[in-house]
Amino acid sequence: MTDSWANFGADLHLDLSAGRGRRAGLVEALREAARSGRLAPGTRLPSSRSLAVDLGMARNTVAEAYAELVAEGWLTARQGSGTRVAERARPRPGKPAGAAPVRRPERRGPSYSLVPGTPDLSGFPRAAWLAAARRALTHAPNDAFGYGTDARGRVELREALAEYLARVRGVYADPERIVLCAGFVQGLKLMAGVLRARRVREVAVEGYGLNVHRDVLAGAGLRTRPLPVDGAGARTEDLAGAGAVLLTPAHQFPTGAALTPARRAAAVDWARRTGGLILEDDYDGEFRYDRQQIGALQGLDPDRVVYLGTGSKALAPGLRMGWMVLPPGLVEEVLAVKGRAEWTSSALDQLTLAEFIRSGAYDRHVRGMRQRYFRRREALVAAVGERVAAVSGISAGLHAVLDLPAGTEGPLIQAAAWHSLSLTGLSYYRHPEADMPPRDALVVGYGTPPDSAWGATLAALAATLP
Fold first, then answer.
1. What is the pLDDT of residue 185?
2. Tally of CB atoms within 10 A around 455
3. Does position 56 have pLDDT exceeding 60, yes or no?
């Protein structure tokens, strides 16, 4: 038979095997529980009277079982401290006779990193976020603790985002046309599924970009065709034949160019003429330093542009929080791919972000981080000085491009490793089919290091450059 007790802070199921005496069965069951770790060392057991009542035994039977286990060293009994599981040293696994000692190689990663794509995680506004979480939890409706029946996400966050995006990014955003997702990649996966269902075969992408995005599209059976990228952004005049295009108009990743008005217009004209869709990745549009931020491309034609935003750069990627602003006729198609329930983003995190935005804490945080990243960019430009051919791209975002003499990108990345510095070359982001002249450059993520390591990281970069 199997009995259990639950009167000392935890449930423990004891197998009191049939065919044994009650005392012997209890001794073996407790011994096995201690041996296996189900009863952790130091755990206080119930009194013999209490356990006897729970198990329907005589008190003397339990007391004798305890005494036997104390004698064996499995339990300890002290006046005023009760009966507890003994602290026992666990035997170490033996080593075969004559076996040579195993040496584990030391694995040391770089001490410093300027790999782009991550904000300064030490800058996450913990106190302000915690305050918003407390307010959100206090006022959360009961249904927020359920499974989530609206795949678009919590209406509170969709309403807060609609107001914020219209005010800051010039996005035409109706809360009913916003779908929340677990970051940009999930949003792209959803759109890839929609495009596949629409029988789109080819998506144009920028000739320099993240391979993870290309892999998402390829995973849905979509071919990616690279658009040449220059100082004016992607050449959107070359979109003929594509069914959709993925762009980073405000700040091309990774080259740092802003899509010019003429090329923005060319993209929108193509979409209207062909019925194609523009997928706008606005990953760091809030961070512009030399002028007012460039508005989102979506503002030119909300019916042809799918706007994808994220909190990964302004807050932290660990939040897994992103959003899609969809053309009116696309919401149902996206929900058909996503499903009719919200399974990916925590409702409480959504309510917290809604409160964080409404209270003004999000604006204050972005302003503070904008100043921090601007100072870092200025320090980077000053530190590299004449050591590189040029610092290219607009003054924006969390990364800069350091143009190099031809043939020096690879050697410099190797040299950086000797200084325990992790760097990424521009060639890493090049589409394998891109038809563009070769370009040697470093993509430096000055937003990545914490404040405490920024000075040393910059010094390591300066020591790397010739």
1. 96
2. 11
3. yes
